[in-house]
Specification:
It is a single chain. With about 150 residues, the protein is mainly beta. Helices cover about 10% and strands about 40% of the residues. The chain has 2 domains: about 5-50, no CATH class; about 65-150, OB fold (Dihydrolipoamide Acetyltransferase, E2P). The chain has a 5-stranded antiparallel sheet with strand order 4-5-12-10-7, with no helix packed on it. A 4-stranded antiparallel sheet has the order 9-8-6-11, with no helix packed on it.
């Protein structure tokens, strides 16, 4: 199944009243489940093997990034999903953001790889990066704090 077909299935589930779809084609299996207005894609490990470098793989829209105000008027940006955190598009590229950088709403902060899909995580706040709370290429959990931001 092509990435385009998977994206169409996700959109279909998101737009319809259907809450779950399971599809099997030969050894390819995919289950798409809708939870609390979020669409989750689960795919069998053998089902998708990228033929391109991670930087060139088309990215699916990531779930909304969570933010939370903490003591000192800082905002914590949290992971919207489980996966692996990457600070840059590839090892030889510069990090999306560093401590001290000014960020804007919609700016890419990092990439979270989940199930061989590379999701760009965008900021929902403007401000200054005070602290990066995770190491590059480390596994992260849903709702785990990633960045501490001083809002504008």
């Amino acid at each position: 199944m092509e990435l385009k077909e998977i994206k169409e299935l996700i959109k279909l589930v998101s737009d319809s009243g259907v809450s779950e779809v399971d599809i099997t084609k030969g050894d390819f299996k995919i289950a798409i489940k809708k939870h609390e207005e979020k669409t989750v894609v689960m795919q069998a490990p053998q089902a998708y093997a990228p033929t391109q470098a991670p930087a060139a793989i088309e990215r699916l829209e990531a779930p909304a990034v969570k933010t939370e105000t903490v003591a000192g008027n800082f905002i914590t940006i949290k992971s919207p999903m489980i996966g692996t955190y990457y600070k840059s598009q590839s090892p030889d590229k510069a990090a999306f953001v560093q401590v001290g950088d000014e960020i804007k709403v919609g700016q890419v902060l990092c990439i979270v790889e989940a199930m061989k899909l590379f999701n760009e995580i965008e900021s929902e706040v403007s401000g200054k990066i005070v602290k990066i709370l995770v190491e590059n290429a480390s596994p992260i959990e849903y709702d785990q704090p990633l960045f501490l931001v001083e809002p504008k």
